[in-house]
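Re: beginner question about structure tokens

> Can someone show what the tokenized structure looks like for a real chain? I only ever see the sequence side.

Sure, here's an example I had lying around. Input first:
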Amino acid sequence: MSEEVTYANLKFQDSSEIEHVQKFDQVGIKAPPAPFHGLRKRELALTLLCLLLVIGLGVLGSMFHLTLKREMGKLKKLQNVKEELQKNVSLQLMYNMDICKKIRNISTTLQELATKLCYELYRKEPEHRCKPCPKRWMWHEDRCYKLSNNYDTWKNSDMTCSAYNANLLKIKNKSVLEFIKSQKLHDYWLGLSPRKVNTKYEILDEAFISLDWLTRNTSDLNDGAYCGFIAYTNYVYYTSCTSGKYSVCEKLANPVKIESTLMNEEPDGRM
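And the corresponding structure tokens:
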């Protein structure tokens, strides 16, 4: 009988403790901590994820490094190719410039030889096809000269020369002086600037360098102006510009054509 009472008391005591715990939960007292097993799993998952991220970053870094190294190698090769090409282009340009210089020198030499040969042919045949001057014009060095047998005023003579795209004779160097003296000219207008005062004659040999050779427009000439002319081969006189004299026109000669010098005509007109 007493054993049954003891059992009932114990059972009643356990149920009262359960009610006491439930009352604590209802009034807001913290429940006992959750099991530790679930938190452990989450920590392991996060650790594994971080490890995978680190491994992935390492792999990506290695791939980037290898790619960068490979591309830098390609860039270096391209740079070497570029430098080599630039070097070759520079050498080729220098070579071409040297060739062009040699060609110019050869061309100049051929031109000089053709001019000398043509001049020898011209001396034998004044109207040779290689002559760089128009027909009935004389050739000396780089100039062409035409003697006029018509008497005219200085102004009209100057206009006649202009119609030939030429000027009245100007003697500015010793070679031209000797050439003109060899023509034994008398009463030929010179391309001297008209003067307002008449002066005595001058010796051409002594005065040709210091003479006032024409450099300005003389369209306003009047009866009071005096113009120079060559007389007795080696003298310069001045007279009224409205007087009548012969004239000598001069102009620049064309370059001698090499082919016209080398290709000579046969006597019967055949090439």
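Each token stands for a local structural state, so reading them left to right follows the chain. Residues 52-131 form one domain.
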